[in-house]
Design brief:
Belongs to the isocitrate and isopropylmalate dehydrogenases family. One of its GO terms (cellular component) is cytosol. The chain has 144 residues and is mainly α. It has one domain: Isopropylmalate Dehydrogenase (3-Layer(aba) Sandwich), CATH 3.40.718. It has helices at residues 2-5, 18-27, 76-89, 93-108, 122-139, and strands at residues 39-43, 55-59. The termini are far apart.
Length: 144
Amino acid sequence: MILVKNYTGLNGVVVTSNLFGDIISDESSIIPGRIGLLPSASLSGVPDVKDKCNGIYEPIHGSAPDNSGNGTVNPIGTILPVAMLQPYSLNLPEEAKAVEEAVHVALDGGLRTKDLGGNATTEVVGDAVVEELKKILKAQGGVV
């Protein structure tokens, strides 16, 4: 109930069963206002910075097959699970931060798909995130 009543009071990992996790992740879409923005992870254990944790990473909205190929799907919910995968399963926390930052920069630049009130296509938003990620990684001296 904390998530519904006071979502700003919750910041972290929620450990629960898959069924209840699906319900919570759908409810959490109230935070950004759209279900298409949020990532989700089903992990094999508790995340630990010392050990990798296997998991399934996905957007909470599912595959949205009805929207396939029309260029209107918001790619952010598909990009952000990569940022979850990196620290938990690949032990790459800095790369995860870079992905999250690239998403923030692209959104802060005003790019919006239809679900967010804009007219940018899936490809345009996705490409903008990739370009921002390249800039961030290059500035950090990483591989681009």
